[in-house]
Amino acid sequence: MRFTAIFPLLCTLVAFILSLLCIFAGSKTGYIEQADILTLNTSMLGRLTLNTSKSSSSLLNSIGNSIKGEVNDLVADITRKLNIHDFYSAHLLNYCEGYYTPSAVANATVDPRKNVTKCSNQTAMFHFDPSSVIQKELKPGINLTDLRWPSAIKDAVHAVEMASKVMFVLYCIGVATIGLALLGAFLGVFSGGRIAALANNMLSLLAMLSLGIASTIVSVIMAKVVNEVNEHGTDIGVTASKGKTFLGMTWAATGLMLVAAIAWIYEFVTFRRQQTTYVFEGKTGRY
User: Is the peptide bond before 112 cis (omega within 30 degrees of 0)?
Assistant: First the structure.
């Protein structure tokens, strides 16, 4: 048994768990919701439109005329009358939606917290299209045009669609490779050998490469979509935020696989030295 091989084994195990969490976060209501890729805040959507413009929708105008009360109640009332949710959080396999509690508006004593009410079905190659999702939820008689929904948001989401699908494939390759590396790491701990160390190093490097590219893609997607939403959506009350927890997990998994690959190189070198050590006439030497 090689005790030094336990270290890369633990690195691989933790990376495997983090990768699975990245894939299955948000797969059901309340399951690691904080590990979303990005969150779209629509709690203020419609408020500015109702206050500053004359919409072509008579239903939308009637909603604006019927809403009264304090700011917190006003915001909550608008989203419910429009039949939309306060937020939509995108995950790798689906999206979740819900309302902020106790209120969508922060104050000096309380910060809004997410209360997830529903998550969509898990889908391979999932691509989050907020424009389509919100349009389907809007009350009949109201459309995104009435709310002055920016076309730039649609364009940004469409531009990263293929990247989202490639990212999913890379995560699958990464998790599968880490699974093989995990199996190889167990064998490396109990049996050892240069071949095992070299094979584990190659598997770890492949997993690190897959996760690294996937992590880079998701970082770019986050930046592009979030920046476009915040640049063009603020005027209508829509903002977006990056999933910092997701980024932390995916890059941590990538880093751990890099560390595991380096550790297996160390195992390969030290095992070779041990193999070339010999004892001759009571003296220790090396070839």
Answer: no
Residue pointed to by tokens 């336990």: 6
C-alpha distances in angstroms, 104 versus 110, 118, 171, 263? 10, 18, 34, 48
Question: What are the residue ranges in the chain where pLDDT is below 50?
Answer: 52-55, 67-72, 74, 108, 277-282, 284-287
Alpha-carbon distance 31 to 25, whole Å? 6
Global pTM? 0.81
The residue among 243, 252, 195 whose CA lies nearest residue 223 is: 243
**Cα–Cα dist 131/114, whole Å:** 21
Residues 6+ apart with CB under 8 A from 251: 215
pLDDT tens, residue by residue, 127-166: 999 999 998 988 888 888 878 888 899 999 998 989 999 9
C-alpha span between 276 and 154 (Å, rounded)? 64
Report yes or no: 144 and 49 within 8 Å, Cβ to Cβ. no
Half-sphere exposure of 55 (CA within 13 A, CB side): 25
Angstrom distance (rounded) from CA 35 to CA 75: 26
> CA-based angle 185:188:190, to the nearest 5?
115
Q: Kindly report the number of other CB atoms within 10 A of residue 7's CB atom.
A: 17
Where would I find the H helices in the chain? Answer: 6-24, 47-52, 58-66, 71-82, 130-137, 151-159, 161-190, 194-232, 244-276
pLDDT given for residue 48 in this prediction: 57
Q: Measured between alpha carbons, how far is 5 from 192 in angstroms, rounded to an integer?
A: 8
Closest listed residue to residue 178, CA positions, set 205, 197, 217: 205
Short-list 8, 4, 6, CA closest to 262 = 8
